[in-house]
Design goal:
This protein has 146 residues and is an alpha+beta fold. It has one domain. It is 31% helix and 39% strand. A six-stranded antiparallel beta sheet has the order 1-2-3-4-5-6. Helix 1 packs parallel to helix 2. The model has no long low-confidence stretch (mean pLDDT 83).
């Protein structure tokens, strides 16, 4: 039985419970899968955060994905494909989880994205797959130059 860490925040609790339920199917496509409850110190206050890291290897291709989730629904995602020297490509995005997505839908999107074979293809194909996060993570209003 998977033990889910206790969180003071309901949103993080729902993310953790959903992740625990999907862990087996995520592990199927990963060589390493880690889930951690972490505290950040912000202005002297402890703030809960979830850190998820997934790494997968298919022959010589290796994909690393890190996902940080804060209690205020703020999310940071970083995905990289290893190359012979350094990274073949890397993508990062941050934003607030859209109100249209429940924690269950968010973890399902994460699972589908990570399981996508597009990540093992070219940079352009991976970029198309990464575009799904534009809908899921709201970045807020942008400054308009006139």
């Amino acid at each position: 039985m998977q033990i889910v860490p206790d969180f003071e925040n309901q949103f993080l609790t729902e993310i953790a419970v959903t992740f625990a339920k999907k862990r087996r199917s995520l592990k199927y496509n990963a060589s390493t899968l880690k889930f951690h409850k972490v505290y950040d110190i912000v202005e002297g206050e402890k703030v809960e955060k979830i850190e998820i890291s997934v790494e997968s290897s298919r022959s010589r291709n290796s994909i690393r994905m890190r996902l940080y989730i804060w209690e205020d629904r703020w999310v940071w995602i970083d995905v990289r494909k290893a190359g012979k020297v350094g990274w073949d490509w890397e993508f990062s995005k941050h934003g607030r989880l859209s109100g249209n997505y429940s924690p269950r839908q968010f973890i399902e999107a994460f699972k589908e994205f990570y399981s996508s074979s597009a990540l093992f293809d070219s940079q352009a194909t991976a970029l198309e797959a990464f575009a799904v996060w534009n809908e899921i993570l709201a970045t807020g209003p942008a400054e308009v130059m006139t």
